[in-house]
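Deliverable D5.2: sample structural annotation.
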Amino acid sequence: MNSDMSAENYEGAPRGERMTGAQAVVRSLELLGVSDVFGLPGGAVLPLYDTLNEDNELRHILVRHEQGAGHAAEGFAAASGKVGVCLATSGPGATNLVTTIADAYMDSVPMLAITGQVFSHLMGSDAFQEVDIVGITMPITKHSFLVKKAEDIPQALAAAYEIAGTGRPGPVLVDITKDAQEAEFDFVWEPRVDLAGYRPITKANSKQIQAAAELIAEAERPVFYIGGGVGRAGASEEFLQLAELVGAPVVTTLMARGVFPDSHSQHLGMPGMHGTVPAVLALQESDLLITIGARFDDRVTGKAALFAPEAKVIHADIDPAEIGKIRSADMPIVGDAAEVISDLIAAISTAKRAREFADISAWWQRLRLLQDKFPLGYAETSDGLLAPQYVMQRISDLTGPEGIYVAGVGQHQMWAAQFIKYERPNSWLNSGGAGTMGYAVPAAMGAKVAEPDRVVWAIDGDGCFQMTNQELATCTVNDIPIKVAVINNSSLGMIRQWQTLIYNGRYSNSELETGHGSRRIPDFVKLGEAYGCLSIRVEREDQVDEAIKLALETNDRPVLIEFVVSADAMVWPMVRQGTSNSDIQYALEHAPVWDEE
């Protein structure tokens, strides 16, 4: 991970200054280099919030819901590579963070969640707003700390920050009792962390690297299967060198979009349930998977027993628990992705001087044929409403690769992953593993705080948007001018798609009545205006560019554009859950007609 995530080597730290535990929280965060904190006060963190009111270097952003704080911290971390920080009170404040902590855990997002706890003498008595948040979050954090003494606060926060940002990144919880926040002590800062049993392996075994290079040299149908771990390691530039050295095709998972440029000739696109046909079949037909920072998620593999049946597997990951969990690895490599890639570059460069590599030209001929026969496309709508894919393309073209695109979960997420062009890391943020509806708006807010000079789009569905749109108030009040594209198909779109394909059009509880016909509940334009946003409704294709350009020109407030799209639009290609990737569906009758192989 990035070096600025380490808690070590802070010079000029105070020693022996008298302060409260609450003041120690603020001072510790300052010494760790934290600049921005997202949170919401409550009784068990009032001492800390009283301290935040004093002179300090932290910018606290008051959210409207603790879930917003957690997702904002995630967005901040994912856009910047730094640890994101959120605050909440005890009880429901803490439990409202649970979804975001689980989200960060699944997607390896470095996040520090600080919660207040009731007075230590009341713990275990079912006191007002008492919840065992350490126990609740134990399965979804890298580690959880319960702090009952003020003097333990600096070391707990330094350790939490270190754990969150090193090894496989993830969320860490620090729960601090109210009496620990109020008590006074002599502050001592010892940021060097030595945690028993916590020794992330970053340097790979050299023999395994050499063996992996031999497998690559022998492969006739190799594929780089690249996951989000490469992006989290900041290893995009190194991977570009490795990919060009080997010359093999590259597929980037949903979490890795942007890690390898879409425009590169070796890139086949995204694999998985809604991946491109060339990417899906390249994995399926390969004889060697060069897997780095990916975890063989079911959305990529389909039915795991039928996935890439002829392929040997090189699996490199910083988390040894991932290797062999789903697919047995012929060559397991434990290490940081950046170091593994650098070592592979050296080993393969040496091997190329010593021996001939297998000819992969026939493999590329096969893949180019797939690219020609099965391009990513979409059908015109039959009801006269907008095609959501067209909206994505225009947002992408008019904003460009320097923007940050943050998606919720569902059809709009897949269209954004497919039809926006990603050329750089940290430009695509989404909830991949947990699939959390409501992620987009607060995560975009956090990303904009981290990267204020970039255009940040929250691309949301009408279902997701209704879960966390209250954070637009936070954006307006705090001058965080994100752009929000609500892709309104008046339904829970992905649910509706499955109901169309699998449940014979029985649309049970998936209609939302947000924009098709006379009823608009709610009216998103009026809602956006109530939150202080420039709000626009787009219903025709000739309005799309004008609305996007106006959004890009408006930077004094958030912008909300409601794109009214066809409810019949579907995400294609598609591999049905529990089936083989070889059974990929290209389209239905109303979608583009591609010849079968």
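Annotation notes: The radius of gyration is 25 Å. The chain has three domains: 3-188, 206-373, 388-571.
The annotation will be released with the project's public dataset once the embargo ends.
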